[in-house]
TrEMBL record:
Keywords in alphabetical order: ATP-binding, Carbohydrate metabolism, Kinase, Nucleotide-binding, Transferase
Protein's recorded name: 3-oxo-tetronate kinase
Function: Catalyzes the ATP-dependent phosphorylation of 3-oxo-tetronate to 3-oxo-tetronate 4-phosphate.
Protein source organism: Spiribacter vilamensis
Similarity annotation: Belongs to the four-carbon acid sugar kinase family.
Four-carbon acid sugar kinase N-terminal domain boundaries: 4-231
Domain Four-carbon acid sugar kinase nucleotide binding positions: 259-425
Pfam families per UniProt: NBD_C, SBD_N
Residue runs in coiled coils: none
This enzyme's EC code(s): 2.7.1.217
Iron-sulfur recorded as keyword: no
SUPFAM superfamilies membership: YgbK-like
Catalytic activity as recorded in UniProt: 3-dehydro-D-erythronate + ATP = 3-dehydro-4-O-phospho-D-erythronate + ADP + H(+); 3-dehydro-L-erythronate + ATP = 3-dehydro-4-O-phospho-L-erythronate + ADP + H(+)
Keyword Transferase: yes
Length: 433
């Protein structure tokens, strides 16, 4: 019976969290979409279940409904603690979805307060006095102000989350964290007494993650990025609630061709696309052309890729600069541009796998959700880490015509837009053969 039930608002975020739990010693599986209680019952011996939703940018009421349904399934499966995972760059809008989902989960669990701890110092995300920084740069000057769907125009998370919430939002500042576990617990008690239900937690370094983890180990709900998950397993083990295992499982080998599909437009992904394109074949997609002739755009991309497969990795991308994204959005509409690019990349990802790709990198959280959905994958096993926040995962894919349609193993790396070193797209294939 799993001890920890997690709900992640996108797919790259889910693998990021699962990766940190596995690396901390918890046996973890990632399931795709709201699970049935019976599907969870069949998972066998696991310590944590991560439910990957695609709820970050859907209407808040839908995100709340899906998250509550996932929570109910995890409760039925016997989980004792719960974790709501969102982005380390707090990707959301003034309407949601972090606040509404967190408040609904607190209410269903009958819990008074949860921390909101997005920081992940290993990937350069820190929170100081409630303000989020990416590698020392304020969030709203880091490139995230140009995000196609969730432009982050304010780095004060107390203010930003406050706009999304019915209740009050508080702060656990870094000086309190420096004073240690008891000081944090006292601050949580004070905030709870004052009627606060969500508290942004400062985090400057890994020690703060450990202090936070120990301070909230008894809380029913933790919300945050994946960083704070690193601080939770040890206190749970020390309290005799779980046993910790050795590191991530080996995934074995996959054979077959390799490819990258990228729909992320983050500054980091743009660097990674440029680095890959200087070595291997890469094809750029134009959203306006996709809008005019969607089927042809997909067919042509696959026709371009097929003869190259096997000779080294190929990349197909819609990744573009903020001005180009804004131009496409003003012609097509923001939501429509995102959805049609996601649909095309999903069909291309599935088409590449049908054509023999067995290790596929997908860049972008929404894009990953679309590709994994098109492949009909239900579950991911977590394997070796490529860079902080991004592991290789293994999936069983049932759409194959090979071996009488028997499922084949597929290596998938779902890369957050902001994660990974510049050479990620090439080096990843050396980590997992
Ligand atoms: N050239 C483009 N013009 C407009 N929107 C785009 C373009 N390329 C990608 N998109 C959309 O931008 C969004 C990127 O989000 P996502 O995949 O989550 O990336 P990230 O991980 O960087 O947030 C997706 O909805 C995608 O379809
Ligand atoms: O916490 C993070 O930064 C990631 O786990 C994450 O949520 C990724 O989201 P995208 O940047 O949209 O891929």
């Amino acid at each position: 019976m799993a001890f920890l039930g997690c709900i992640a608002d996108d797919f790259t975020g889910a693998t990021d969290l699962a990766n940190n739990l596995v690396r901390a010693g918890m046996r973890t599986v990632q399931v795709i979409g709201v699970p049935t209680a019976s599907a969870l019952a069949g998972l066998g011996e696991v310590d944590a279940i991560v439910v990957a939703l695609k709820s970050r940018t859907i209407p808040a009421a839908d995100a709340v409904a899906q998250s509550r349904a996932a929570l109910a399934a995890l409760q039925t499966a016997g989980c004792k603690r719960f974790y709501f995972k969102y982005c380390s760059t707090f990707d959301s809008t003034p309407d949601g979805n972090i606040g509404p989902v967190a408040e609904a989960l607190l209410s269903d669990l009958g819990a008074p307060l949860a921390i909101a701890a997005p920081a992940f110092p290993a990937t350069g995300r820190t929170v100081v006095n409630g303000e989020l920084f990416v590698n020392g740069v304020p969030l709203n000057a880091s490139g995230m102000q140009h995000h196609p769907l969730t432009p982050m125009t304010d780095n004060n998370l107390v203010r930003w989350l406050g706009k999304q919430c019915r209740g009050d939002v508080g702060l656990i500042d870094y000086e309190t964290l420096d004073r240690g576990v008891e000081a944090v617990r006292m601050q949580i008690a004070n905030l709870t007494g004052a009627g606060v239900s969500l508290a942004i937690a400062d985090t400057v370094n890994d020690r703060h993650l450990a202090v936070l983890g120990e301070a909230v180990a008894d809380c029913m709900l933790v919300t945050g990025g994946s960083g704070v998950a690193l601080g939770l397993p040890d206190p749970w083990r020390d309290a005799g609630l779980i046993e910790l295992q050795s590191d991530a499982a080996e995934l074995g080998t996959f054979g077959g061709a390799t490819a990258v599909v990228s729909g992320s437009c983050s500054a980091r992904t743009r660097e990674q696309v440029a680095a890959f394109s200087s070595i291997y074949p890469a094809l750029a997609l134009d959203p306006l052309r996709i809008a005019e002739h969607p089927a042809e755009a997909v067919d042509q991309a696959l026709a371009w890729a097929r003869p190259k497969l096997g000779a080294g990795p190929v990349l197909i991308y819609s990744t573009d600069a903020p001005e180009a994204v804004a131009a496409a959005q003003s012609r097509l509409g923001t939501t429509e541009a995102g959805a049609l690019v996601e649909r095309a990349l999903a069909q291309i990802g599935a088409g590449l796998v049908k054509a023999g790709v067995r290790r596929l990198i997908v860049a972008g959280g929404e894009t990953s959700g679309a590709v994994v959905g098109a492949l009909g994958i239900q579950m991911l096993r977590i394997g070796p880490q490529i860079d902080p926040g991004v592991p290789w995962t293994a999936a069983r894919w049932s759409g194959s015509a090979e071996a009488d349609g028997a499922p084949v193993d597929l290596g998938l790396a779902l890369k957050s837009g902001n994660f990974g070193e510049v050479d990620f797209f090439t080096r990843a294939f050396e980590v997992c053969a």
